[in-house]
Amino acid sequence: MNLFSRSVLGKRIFKNGMHKAVALQASSKSSNPAMQFPCLDKMEELSEQLRNKHGTCSSVDATSSPNNEPNYGKVRSGFKLYKSNQPLFLDYGGVLPKFQIAYETWGNLNKDASNAVLIHTGLSASSHAKSSPDNSQPGWWEQFIGPGNAMLDTNRFFVICTNVLGGCYGSTGPSSPDPADNLPYATRFPMLSVQDIIRGQQRLVKEQFCIEKLYASVGCSMGGMQSLAYAQQFPQAVEKVVTVSACARSHPSSIAMRHAQRQVLMADQHWKRGFYYPSDEEPNRILPHVGMKLAREIATVTYRSGPEWESRFGTERLNEDIPPVLCPDFLIETYLDHQGEKFSLEYDPNSFLYLSKTMDLFDLSQSHQDRSNRRRAEAQRALEKSDVEDKPPRLCDEPYEATKKRRTTTVEEAREDLRKGMEPIIGKELLVVGVKSDGLFPYWQQREIVDLLGGDKNIEHVELDESQSLFGHDTFLLDLEHVGGSIGRFLKNDF
Amino acid sequence: MNLFSRSVLGKRIFKNGMHKAVALQASSKSSNPAMQFPCLDKMEELSEQLRNKHGTCSSVDATSSPNNEPNYGKVRSGFKLYKSNQPLFLDYGGVLPKFQIAYETWGNLNKDASNAVLIHTGLSASSHAKSSPDNSQPGWWEQFIGPGNAMLDTNRFFVICTNVLGGCYGSTGPSSPDPADNLPYATRFPMLSVQDIIRGQQRLVKEQFCIEKLYASVGCSMGGMQSLAYAQQFPQAVEKVVTVSACARSHPSSIAMRHAQRQVLMADQHWKRGFYYPSDEEPNRILPHVGMKLAREIATVTYRSGPEWESRFGTERLNEDIPPVLCPDFLIETYLDHQGEKFSLEYDPNSFLYLSKTMDLFDLSQSHQDRSNRRRAEAQRALEKSDVEDKPPRLCDEPYEATKKRRTTTVEEAREDLRKGMEPIIGKELLVVGVKSDGLFPYWQQREIVDLLGGDKNIEHVELDESQSLFGHDTFLLDLEHVGGSIGRFLKNDF
Fold first, then answer.
1. Into how many domains does chain A fold?
2. Of A201, B71, B97, B385, which is most buried by a Cβ count within 10 Å?
3. Which value does ipTM take for this structure?
4. Are the Cβ atoms of B301 and A260 closer than 8 angstroms?
5. C-alpha to C-alpha distance for B152 and B143, rounded to whole angstroms
6. Which residues of A are catalytic?
7. pLDDT (tens digit, 9 = 90+) per residue, B238-277?
8. Cβ within 8 Å, pair B314-A407
9. Quick one: chain B helix, strand, coil %, rounded to 5?
10. For A194-239, how does the pLDDT look when each residue is reduced to its tens digit (9 = 90+)?
């Protein structure tokens, strides 16, 4: 009965302690060969490399930065910094005592400062939307911006793009030093709302460039949340608004998918509740790169579409002649694995966690604004009175205890709340773009934006069907013709 | 600027080593309170409890079972065992030198053995579909089976349900001892196909009960794959076939979601490449319960539907008055968390990994069958010749290297291959049920089954729209009226 008396445990297996333990239990006799795990070998080797570099990796050069703060932004050179020493009070009651925003610009601001276009980015993008003399690397929207470009013509527009607050490409985020002790904020970073992010951007626009009114606010995905929030918060400070593959309020399905990403990342033993940045006491801490990779893989599932995968990968395996393995094996698996791996050392895991949650929390409802306004005012009063020592901690000790099992408002009440919150946007020139193959921000969410604004005649609604794009949520990064073209036509003017 | 000079690091934080390290880095001064992580505290406490119980948990009573094999099946009492000492040769070239299948029955087999209905289960179910004198606990299809029941009337039918091979509720699976050394197979377990599973069942049906022809083969989800495979492999041995929320071949989108679940589970430090079962050398090993919980959370995202969550949870948080946290916070998050937690100690993680992959691999194509037949024959020849010592290992050393980036067959070729493989099913009385709100096995996959069979007049196709069920893939567990009713009417006969 003993078909394989020779052990087929792989040659890598005796490399380190954990593998030895495995080998111990897997005796030399087995009815079938033991499975090999090259994907896990690779992750363990990477951890070891990172540890040997004293907790840093190529893109995270912690040792050379002050306060041991990892400097993800460093690898993205060529941006400028707007610094504010005035505190930013936040929608959930926190505060940034001071902050900075990384930004880049293309084109020139005209005399009356009327040709500025602010680009808001998605969760993981930097301010580098386009190459420039200061950074010749292609930007994430390289083909959509430039002199004479059909979408954003830099001969006519002054284009600004920022790294969002909470990010890790130069703007203040969880990897930045907390002014209170100069150590990284980590999970002492305050929770941000999308509205907080655009309030920071608005200071930059006004104080750095003396722009009273943007010609346009343009964003896709989380950026499309920002452009709507900009119009809601500063309706007088923006002429035209473009929102692509976004929504007026997050949906529980999207929250569920982002929840999974966050929990997976937080379960990485190297995450250490956010305090994974190397310090003098703990020089060998390493990034939770496995958790980050897995989180990105789950995210990637939501970025493209089933029909694209069917035509590209189908259900083919790398090699039909060998038995199936639990490491990446189907083509679709190797694609996800590669996407996760690419990202895992490129982005600060804490930034990912915070901004992912910020997206979940996005809600243009009136009640949401009212609560936010109250909390910001409280945070400001607290700072002025300086009596915070006596304030009870504002964190629930056991938020985990789920005593509330169902929603307490009806779907209709919540919708009316949302409609009311969006009233400031009514009358704005607004372009709403949706993509039928997008499962993360499904097309009905863009239709809902239009409906909630009462089908305003100033609204232009473009919906790309499956014959136009199978690229799902990622369409805005790829589709120059339909997305770029629609935006270009909408922004047409007589500068 | 120092708003919160009093540290608000939670009281649990000094409990163990890891927490101390966290506290070390989070100094006593911070601009905002540090976030708390009750969900992580809870997981760490559970790990400690499991360690103190010497690697076992309430449902995994390893110490009392022979060979230190955890006995998930033990808590599911009342089943019988079919044991085969004849090897089962497998589609991917492996072998089970001997095996057992746990099963339960309800009703009585009639004289000519013509009234047997075989129920095939989904991935995680046991043989306990219905309560019985031997086990009074409600079964997973409790309301769908019983004397006079509209779906499966046990006064008329002899109902059999098995735990699938690869499972952990009594049938041979990765937690079972490998006869070669009496240690748990772990990841030395051979990969199974759905066809392998039903071949095992067919031996039980024939050898244990002398049933030459089943009256019906009935299954949902992975069970619906099995009933189709049964009809394909043994068209003469089954009269009627019911397949609910299943497909003829897995889709890359479903593979992507299951891939994520597997990778997350395998990343758990306690998984140890499958060798987490406590042994004499390693008595303190514990289940990778965190990875299992996270995998189940991701799976749960695919089991229900967005509209259900919208009406049940919306975007409400547990408590709007406290700042958002990264632990479960939205109602939808607490739901997913609870679902994951419930499952995390109830199921063998290796069984989950293997059967998840088995679902990915499901494919009724002709080419798939041809390859499988060849490999099974090879495995058998190898056993007979006993020359396996000289065989090179059949595992690819580096399956990770993705050199093949795109599919090599066209969508049309693959469809024709599938159509051909399904020819043996043509002419069978077949009920195909699909659910419009199911995102995991979308309704077009059930329509495809019907189309591939040439729209055979013996096929009955039922499609539940959103007004009938918003329960998504889980509908088959819940919908007595539409699912149960349709099956009951289809099985009507004159016994």
1. 2
2. A201
3. 0.90
4. yes
5. 10
6. 221, 438, 473
7. 999 999 999 999 999 999 999 999 999 999 999 999 999 9
8. yes
9. 40, 15, 45
10. 999 999 999 999 999 999 999 999 999 999 999 999 999 999 999 9
